[in-house]
Specification:
The protein has 228 residues and is α/β, with parallel strands linked by helices. It folds into 2 domains: 155 residues, HAD superfamily/HAD-like (Rossmann fold, 3-Layer(aba) Sandwich); 69 residues. The protein has 11 helices and 8 strands. The strands form 2 sheets. The protein has a 6-stranded parallel β-sheet with strand order 5-4-1-6-7-8, with helices on both faces. Strands 2-3 form a two-stranded antiparallel sheet. Strand 6, helix 9 and strand 7 form a beta-alpha-beta unit. The chain is globular, with a radius of gyration of 18 Å. The termini are close together.
């Protein structure tokens, strides 16, 4: 068995970065301080697929300011200084150590751009576990037109380059893009993890093969299937 990880959500906690981008997108608007959302409320809305535009409206902005705020947030969310706010989930190093000790092939497939991904790999010192051959992402100047299709292409490319069987590979993701793309790429199992950018309730709608809270649960499932 092999494991494919999406990056933001399964491995990286991006909640603080997204919240700071939200706050930054309100600057220069006529937002009411009393209506600015707390991080907890903002993140809950985001995880339940409330759009950036709707979140801006809830923050007291008018229609035009809400449109501008939503657009600004897309750019702010991947600004270098805000990327520094990302945090590695506590179970990542333990999980990677385990997979490495068992000689299980694992790799990253993400819609992050190459510069953004390599920045995080260095930031969190993950090159010990993942060399460049096990990192699959978009070119720095790439403009996404279809999230699911482009993720599927990356997933298939990863299998081909690593010479892995799709049926023997599981994908772990936190969004509808990961789950749909994993199925289209014919990965053996698709696992939804509920600590990322989609809530457990949203992931349940997508009916992944397994739905977990963390990677400890993934390893437990993985071990049981591998033993059988």
């Amino acid at each position: 068995m092999n494991l494919c990880f999406d990056f933001d959500g399964p491995i990286i906690d991006v909640s603080e970065r997204y919240y700071r981008a939200y706050l930054g997108s309100l600057k220069g608007t006529n937002s009411n301080k009393n209506q600015i959302l707390t991080k907890e409320v903002f993140w809950d809305l985001k995880r339940n697929r409330i759009t950036d535009f709707e979140i801006s409206l809830m923050s007291g902005l008018g229609t035009n300011d809400s449109k501008s705020s939503a657009e600004a947030r897309k750019e702010l969310s991947f600004r270098t200084d805000l990327l520094e706010l990302d945090r590695l989930f506590d179970d990542i190093l333990k999980t990677f150590e385990y997979l490495k000790s068992k000689k299980i092939t694992f790799f990253i497939v993400t819609l992050r751009r190459q510069k953004q991904l390599l920045h995080a790999i260095n930031q969190f010192k993950l090159s010990k576990y993942l060399d460049d051959d096990h990192l699959f992402c978009l070119n720095d100047n790439h403009k996404i037109t279809n999230d699911i299709q482009e993720k599927q292409i990356l997933l298939v490319s990863a299998l081909n380059k690593l010479d892995l069987s799709a049926q023997d590979t599981w994908i772990i993701g936190d969004t509808e893009t990961d789950i749909h793309a994993g199925r289209l790429a014919k990965y053996g199992k698709v696992i939804g993890i509920s600590r990322g950018i989609r809530s457990k309730e949203q992931l349940e709608i997508l009916k992944p093969d397994y739905l977990v809270n963390n990677l400890t649960e993934v390893i437990s499932i993985f071990q049981g299937v591998s033993i059988e």
